Amino acid sequence: MAAAGSEAYSGYDEKTAASYLCGDLAEETSLPRDLLLRFHQMWHSHERPFFTQVAEDDTLGVGELAEVVRSIGVKCEFVCASISRVIADGSTRITFAKFVRGYAALHSRTLKQALPFAFKVFDMDGDGVLGAEEFAQILEANLTLQELDPSAIKRVLAAPEALRADGDDGPLKLTLRQFRYFGSISSETILAACGFMLHVRDFYVPLAPFDEEDEELEKQALTTAHARAPAPDTAHTADTRARACFSTRVCSRASTRRICFECVALRWIPCITRRPFL
């Protein structure tokens, strides 16, 4: 889908443009459309408590964005600054659409959704690899946010040999693939990788850590499932399928009343219940 932005609806009146924009963003982010309409109203009227610093051109500065991130629940100034950098994506000011996408990322409902955004927050120099210093900085901040003791920090920092560049004695350098593996090993590594996420305590520990091979197989299964999907006139609605997915077991990979893509790949067989977060 093309990136949603207010300029795409310049030919409509203000109310219609807001409705279309929020509808597209709701489809893209899975956030409730009514919530986005309310945010849109608050953004453009510069309402408290979040949007008093929105400028007359309807943009928000990165510094002010960091304060918004802090006010919605991330209680660490250093992490807030890094999150706002990722949301801004190289810009000095952000639009409403960018804010919504960042807000949605912070409210990720599954570990698999959360890890790519978390990696960018860790990657402070933007080189696509996590060095030891930047990894340790936000990792310690995450564990502090989650009120874990120093012994937990030491256990997490004892990264497996597979996460090091040149074996056990090499420097700690993590790619996104390795970070996904690290962040899905245990409940402690989930907190270490995603401790600033607002729903991190709802994440499930996967049966096995994520790896690249599993991701490729999952993509292939999705492609096959979509190719075999019935025509629209004979298909069930998305909500009906979602309810079928949740009929016997809760799927840890999807938020309430949303389609579980693993279940899509399995033709709507309810997916295996994952281990609860401990």
Radius of gyration equals: 20 Å
Largest sheet: 2 strands, antiparallel
Number of helices: 13
**Termini gap:** 37 Å
Class from helix and strand fractions: mainly alpha
What is the name of the CATH topology of the largest domain? Recoverin, domain 1
How many E-type strands? Answer: 2
Q: Mean pLDDT score, rounded?
A: 76
Which strand-content bin applies to the residues?
under 5%
The CATH class designation of the largest domain is Mainly Alpha
Helix content: 40-55%
Structural domain tally: 3
Approximate shape: globular
Task: Offer a quick outline of the entry.
This protein is mainly alpha-helical and 278 residues long. The protein is built from 13 helices and two strands, in the order ααβααβααααααααα.
